[in-house]
Design goal:
The protein is of the alpha/beta class. Helix content is 40%, strand content 22%. The longest helix is centred in the C-terminal third of the chain and has 18 residues.
Length: 272
């Protein structure tokens, strides 16, 4: 029997029902069939979203759990991880967002990579950034080697979060997302795992279409700027990467986060 994957997805009220259906269907189309999809619904959602969840909730390997209150992505992902770890039948945990699209070969390629590279604990991939309408905007190529990802941790998030697949062993000793954070939870997790000497890699193929909507930059205001700053300070402390170049980059990143949306959009398109 092949190694089984648990797929972790959180859904909340601002998600698009149409995008959600496409996202789930992209999982149902995977060539690697040995997976279960766990969906935590984070608070009250629309009837349209409920309709999509009811449709797929009838599929044998889809498990939907409704929660009364909105408590954030990290809390819901931790719920899924806790549940998966108790079951003790999964070898991998894959992330998926409610508006992205997984390539049909994504799971097959990531599992094959982890089987061939036993030292790697987390593997992600390149992504194709797409618009709300699914129009391809940009090919985002990621660092593929652990040494590069560690070296660039201050200047570049090592993973596209919804593209990653973990070995479940990553979470055996209580490692979890920091549920007190509204965003940047993934960055803190990468720092924690690097501190524990876990090895990273990316597959340089676009195994995920990552949706960038019209509010992507306008949503990144003071709170996001402060969280980004604090996350870099956290990395400085945990990973001992306090260099002049990294300090300068962190200051410039904070100023960029505080700039008008059109400047953030220009910088993102020019320097990503």
């Amino acid at each position: 029997m092949k190694d089984k994957i648990a797929v972790a997805m959180s859904v909340y009220k601002n998600d698009s029902s149409a995008h959600l259906e496409i996202a789930i269907q992209s999982l149902m189309n995977q060539t690697y069939r040995y997976f279960d999809l766990f969906i935590e619904v984070d608070g009250t959602v629309s009837d349209a979203i409920k309709s999509v969840l009811d449709k797929f909730g009838n599929v044998d390997n889809v498990f939907v759990n409704f929660n009364e209150y909105n408590e954030g992505l990290a809390t819901r992902l931790n719920q899924i991880i806790d549940n998966v770890m108790k079951k003790k039948c999964y070898v991998y945990i894959a992330r998926m967002d409610a508006d992205d699209i997984s390539h049909e070969l994504r799971f097959e390629k990531q599992v094959a990579f982890l089987l061939e590279n036993s030292e790697i604990s987390v593997v992600g991939s390149d992504v194709l950034e797409v618009s709300d309408d699914g129009v391809e905007l940009f090919y985002k190529k990621m660092d593929s080697k652990h040494a590069e990802m560690l070296k660039n941790i201050i200047k570049k998030c090592p993973f596209n979060h919804p593209s990653v697949m973990f070995r479940t062993s990553v979470f055996e000793h209580g490692v979890r997302y920091k549920s007190e954070l509204d965003n940047t939870q993934d960055y803190y997790l990468w720092v924690d795992l690097l501190t524990l000497n876990r090895k990273f890699a990316n597959i340089n193929e676009p195994l995920l279409k990552f949706r960038v909507n019209n509010t992507f930059h306008s949503r990144r205001g003071l709170k996001k700027a402060m969280n980004d700053l604090n996350s870099r300070l956290y990395a400085f402390k945990k990973l001992k990467v306090c260099t002049l170049s990294n300090i300068l980059h962190t200051c410039l990143l904070f100023l960029l986060r505080m700039s008008p949306s059109f400047i953030k959009s220009f910088a993102y398109n020019r320097f990503r």
